[in-house]
Design brief:
By secondary structure, the chain is mostly helical. It has one domain (3-85): Non-ribosomal Peptide Synthetase Peptidyl Carrier Protein, Chain A (Orthogonal Bundle). It is 55% helix and 0% strand. It has three helices and no strands. It has helices at residues 3-19, 44-58, 71-85. Helix 1 crosses helix 3. The chain is globular and about 35 Å long.
């Protein structure tokens, strides 16, 4: 995966976090780039919703430890898993 592709995927994941997992748009951006999903305020129920949406949209299962990942790490994971499937 290229950096620009991972960044685009990261933006898509941020959109999913706002629309489906209830995360505030104001919490996302360059200043919170390295924050984990848990540090951003996601709880286990919201993480399960995120897992379901990512599975439906990309056919990728994210790990149970996703709360310990940042958005860029999650985007990289999704991109890598999609690459394996194609």
């Amino acid at each position: 995966m290229t950096v620009s592709h991972d960044q685009a995927l990261g933006k898509e994941i941020e959109d999913i976090l706002v629309r489906s997992a209830g995360l505030s748009q104001e919490l996302l951006g360059d200043t919170t780039r390295d924050a984990t999903l848990e540090e951003l305020g996601l709880d286990s129920l919201a993480c399960m919703e995120l897992q379901a949406v990512l599975k439906d949209r990309y056919g990728v299962r994210i790990p149970d430890e996703a709360l310990e990942m940042s958005v860029p790490q999650l985007a990289e994971h999704v991109g890598n898993e999609r690459g394996k499937a194609s």
